Amino acid sequence: MIIYDLIVGLFLPGFIINRILINNTRNYSFFEQGIISVMLTIIGNLLISFYTIYLLDLNPSQELIREILAVYILLLIIIRIIQTRFFSKRSINPKTPRVLFLTRNYPPVIGGLENLSYNLTTNIKLPKKIISLGKSKRIHMFWFIPYIHLYVIFNGHKYDIIHCNDFQTYMVGIWKFLFPYQKFITTVHGLDVNFANKKGLLSSIYRFCITVMRVFFNPDKIYAISKFPFGLAKDLGLKNLEIINPGINIEDLPKLPVKNIYKEDKFKLPKEAKILSTIGRLTKRKGQVWFVENVMPLLPENYYYFIGGKSYYLEGVNEEDRLNEKIIELGLSDRVVFEKLPNDKDKFRMMRDADLFVMPNITTQSTDAEGFGIVALESAYLGTPVIASDMEGMQDSVIHGKTGIHVEPENPTAFAKEIISYCEGKKHKSLYKTCSFEVEKHFAWSTIAKKYKVSFKNLVS
Fold first, then answer.
1. What are phi and psi of 130, to 5 degrees?
2. Which of 59, 153, 241, 419 is 20 to 30 Å from 50 by CA-CA measure?
3. Residue 94 lies inside a defined structural domain of this protein
4. What is the overall mean pLDDT for the chain?
5. How many alpha carbons fall within 13 Å on the CB side of residue 415?
6. How do residues 187-239 score in pLDDT, each as one tens digit?
7. Structurally, how many domains does the chain consist of?
């Protein structure tokens, strides 16, 4: 009778839940399914205990509640350790490691992190599972983060590598000690590590969390998208760092005709006109307003500046209003145009029709930064060289002398000199012929994915 009660009261409920909740239970051994059943039963009993206390209005002391929680958590951890240590060791094939991708940044949301997550997870040719959020509203994080924690606890042993797209998702690394045979890895982009270097209470808390992560569950590998976040992460004491730049899908970029729509059709500009363009969020750190104020007055009258993107509010300031005020103040209404680009076709057309693509980023007090700069690759591949501030991620996204040139940040004279040299001199004519080839050679996603694949294989070998 006692054995019967144990089976019915302890194993059976958990086993039933196990069969309902856990996918592919046939991949578990009999012992694993039994252990998971016990774990689920413990969780169920915990919920029943608190629900009973609530129904009976027992008003237990806080000490009793803490003791109940501590006992149940301890039981769960002990049972999970038994499972992972004795029943979850799986043979690893270094040629085809199994990868679990966890990302909160994914299409249809548009952005640099979303672009990286999508292309990495779809281009790498390995056995994999992708768990993504793909929603912009932060309220979804309240269910997504607990979900990936639970998924890793119960399914992490099925994979050889668990890749987290950023530090927020890497918090699943607290379970790293339960998985002695798995590699936990993540990616740093810029803002995620730059924020820890700022002053203030929130930055101090964030820095403390990174310290705890570094000491107790440091990733087996941290991929930096450029030298900029690599340096920031290294300064924070993080280890196992490696730089792998993002890329672009060459086949997704249009084959645009040579005809200059902006110059000849849309704006009826004179033949001698030189077009400069910048595309991206209209923010202070990207330097569009700074360029209008400091560089445009130094350029000849036949130079036009087209800015494409979306206006952005930061700390109550609308950067589009600042831009329009500066254009009127300097009398540049005929030479500076801001367009809210509705789609990629118009974005790529503005890139292709320009004589130079400009990235005049400046230093600000904001924690935001240019982790890489995908637009630099897109423009260069379309045949328009890039002139960029020699700072942050643009030191990687622009290959000096091959896809463009670096200029000292916030130096108007240097920018004006190099722009005129590009557009009117013969010094850099070869760049217009070679920049597309260099991007395809170094930054095609087929090439980038191979780098990740080799790194993953080395990690588990």
1. -115, 120
2. 153
3. no
4. 80
5. 29
6. 988 777 777 667 777 677 677 778 878 888 889 999 999 999 999 889 888 88
7. 3
Confidence (pTM): 0.77
Q: Quick one: three-class SS letters along 209-244?
A: HHHHHHHHCCCCEEEECCHHHHHHHHHCCCCCEEEC
Q: Is 35 a residue whose pLDDT tops 60? A: no
d(CA 204, CA 273): 51
CATH number at residue 450: 3.40.50.2000
Both tokens of residue 369? 């930064």
Let me know whether 361 and 258 are in one domain: yes
Cα 134 vs. chain centroid, distance in angstroms? 12
Q: Which two tokens stand for residue 93?
A: 């094939």
Tokens of 94: 């270094």
**308 with 231, same domain?**
no
Q: What are the tokens at 238?
A: 């993080």
Torsion region of 268: left, alpha or beta (phi above 0 gives left; psi -120 to 50 gives alpha): left
pLDDT at 24 over 50: no
Q: Which of these, 80, 137, 77, lies nearest to 104 by C-alpha position?
A: 137
Specify if 92 maps to a domain: no
Cα separation, 26 vs 104, in Å, equals 29
Instruction: Tell me if 191 is assigned to some domain.
Output: yes
